[in-house]
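OP here, attaching both records as promised.
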Amino acid sequence: METILFAGIEGQVLQSSQHGSFLVVKLSNQITICGAVNNIWDWNEAPDRDSGFESFITYVGVSSIAEATEIKTILKKAGGYFQGNEEEPRKSKRVVGSPMELKVRGLNADFVSYMAILLK
């Protein structure tokens, strides 16, 4: 099992792109990120020194619409934002073991690390 350090916490690498330009990393049971070492997808720039990611997108696992609503409020107050229909929880693709997930952009690495610790 490959691991990586992200904002001071160890995460498990779940997937790597063919050319190594991005990694999918599980930080906790409810938090997974997709980090890019280059920003070819023009994601919001949010560098993390520990991992070397120039940018990343955060996936937050939720178990209900009510939980998603509460978490969205917190994420928005922390500077997170959603594109298009991403504000609605979708069937989980990245957060293994969670029935649904939110895909959020614009969070800083320290906040995501803090959330991962809280939502272990």
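Record two, same layout:
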Amino acid sequence: MVEIVVFPDIESLVETYLSAQLADRGDNTPIARTAPADPPARLIRLTSFWGEDTGRALASRFVTVQCTDATSADAADLAELCFAILRGARHDPSMPSVRDVVAVDRPSDRLPEPDPYRPNYQFTLSFLVRGQAR
């Protein structure tokens, strides 16, 4: 049997990590993968896209993060906080599968504007992740 390498579900990994890091800072902003039917004013949405293999055990995965809030200033602050937390994940020993995190410009991966409209900011990160042999 050929040994295969399976990579982590990047959305679950990011959602769990970001939620815990925000909670440690006293922030309980909900995180969703799909837009809720009745979204709160303050919300973080995640979506991911396949990246590229980088050798046998490493691959990149793209994650777009959309932060909404009642005002543009609050949405910008939430986005900056999420960006800083996620950029630091590569240095966190609790995230051994994350080897690097890089900001990327991928306009095609932008999430649609919230409906009803709320101020929002988005960014996309490329996560270099290590897979596990199976």
